[in-house]
Design brief:
By secondary structure, this protein is an alpha+beta fold. The protein has a single domain, classed as NE0471 N-terminal domain-like. It contains four helices and six strands; from the N terminus they run βββααβββαα. It has a three-stranded antiparallel beta sheet with strand order 1-2-3.
């Protein structure tokens, strides 16, 4: 496991910058981190259950919390706060950023969805509210 030697959140650009002792450095946008969340909500418990996050273009990082010595928890402006980004996963996100981002854009295109939170094409991807018991 390679632990970042520096972690900096840049509010203006809305990016998380990670620097490593071996010289590797990457900047990960809040949107990229949000759509890549390791949570079961996004990844599913199986590949078939994975969800395509849509409309996340304007999402921001609200808080970053350490999780022991192995990860961080990122709280996003859309309320998403589950999933721990461990050091290895963050490094992979940095190393594979171009490929993963293009794959995401391709998936949006195939599904007819958008990064834009106001795009009505995204409505079919919004979770359906659960109905409670009627007593």
């Amino acid at each position: 496991m390679q632990v970042p030697s520096e972690i900096t959140y840049h509010q203006v650009s809305n990016t998380l910058e990670l620097a490593y002792e071996d010289g590797f450095r990457c900047c990960l946008s809040a949107e990229y981190l949000r759509i890549s969340s390791p949570s079961a909500e996004v990844q599913g418990h199986t590949p078939e259950q994975a969800q395509l996050p849509v409309g996340k273009k304007n999402v921001r990082i609200v808080d970053i919390e350490p999780v022991g010595r192995y990860a961080i928890k990122i709280v996003f402006s859309d309320g998403h706060d589950s999933g721990y980004y461990d050091w290895d996963y963050l490094r992979v996100l940095g190393l594979e950023q171009a490929e993963r981002w293009q794959r995401y854009l391709d998936q949006l295109k195939v599904k007819g969805a958008s990064r834009d939170p106001d795009d009505p094409r995204n409505d079919i991807f919004k979770p359906i509210a659960k109905k409670g018991c009627r007593h």
